[in-house]
Every structure is written in structure tokens, then in C-alpha cells.
Amino acid sequence: MQTIVVRDYSSKDFKDVAEIDKEVFNAKNPAYDIYIYLTYGKDILVADIGGKIVGYIVTMDLDQRSGKIISFAVSEKFRNRGIGSRLLKSAIERLKSYGKSQIALEVRVSNKVAQNLYKKFGFKISGIIPEYYSDGEDAYYMVLDLGDQ
Ligand SMILES: CC(C)(COP(=O)(O)OP(=O)(O)OC[C@H]1O[C@@H](n2cnc3c(N)ncnc32)[C@H](O)[C@@H]1OP(=O)(O)O)[C@@H](O)C(=O)NCCC(=O)NCCS
Hints:
The chain is α+β, with helices and mostly antiparallel strands.
């Protein structure tokens, strides 16, 4: 099996990240999503297998003390082999290195796989945001207190 490398996004990864966005989130215009990530994202980390991007995670600053995960996905064929955990761990470490004491995110109430992964890393549900998604689904607001670790 080829080695998985988690590294910073570079512009040559655009096409692969756009493809994952389309596949995973059914993005109508993945280029627009990437524009958002590049505009608001502090870091975009990618999982690279032999030059092919199979997953990514985007974080942003909320304020000086807190950060947020704004997008996170692994291509379906590559799931359940620890790539999501590697990306999440690297994103948490990166935000920690910036002195953040809290990381927040939103997740669909139906998305138990992602919720379980976040819980494994210490995130806790701190609230519910009604009809957060465009299809009307609610979101859980989850928070990781880095001071707890
Ligand atoms: C959430 C996501 C990024 C996880 O990626 P991944 O590479 O599969 O993550 P991992 O391999 O590290 O697995 C994480 C956990 O999920 C579990 N898992 C993965 N796929 C699963 C599935 N289809 N059913 C049940 N559990 C599953 C794994 O068992 C693992 O738990 P464990 O470590 O206790 O065994 C990926 O499922 C994904 O892209 N989902 C769609 C987009 C999404 O939900 N993004 C987050 C939005 S908030």
C-alpha cells in the first residue's frame, strides 16, 4: 500500500479537491467552494497518496482563541482506513500550534460517522442549530476544548 502524506494544499491540488467536493457534497460548483476555502480558510490540509489527493480538511480562525473546521471530506473509495483521523489530528495540532484553545464545527444531526469521529477526538455537542443546511436538516454545533487535553 502506498504511503499517505498529510500536507498543505497547493494550487496544483485544485482539481482533485474540486472532484472530492463534487463527489462527497454534491457540489454544483466545486470551484466556488474552493474559492471560499482559499478566501476564509487559514489552512487547507490534504491527504496525498502518490500524488493523488484523496481527502482534505479546511480550518479557519473564528477569533484569536478559537478556530473552526469549515470543510472535511475523504473520497468514498478511501474511507475507513484512518485517513480522516489523520487529517483531523493534523488540523487540531495545527490550530493548537496557533495558540487556539477551542475548535468548533457544525455537523448534520444524521451524520453519525462524522460525529463519532469528532467525539473520539474529544469534541462534544454544545448545541443544535435548527435548519442549518439548505435542505432543512439541523446541525449539531460541536466544540473541542483544547484546555481539556
Ligand atoms: C467523516 C469522514 C471524513 C471520515 O473519513 P475516514 O477516512 O473514513 O475516517 P477514518 O478512516 O479515520 O474513520 C473514522 C471512523 O469512522 C468509522 N467509519 C468510517 N466509515 C464508516 C462507515 N461507513 N460506517 C460506520 N463507521 C465508519 C471508522 O470505523 C472510524 O472509527 P474507528 O476509528 O472507531 O474505527 C468521511 O466519512 C467523509 O468524508 N464523510 C462524508 C463527508 C463528511 O461527513 N464530512 C464531515 C462533515 S462535518
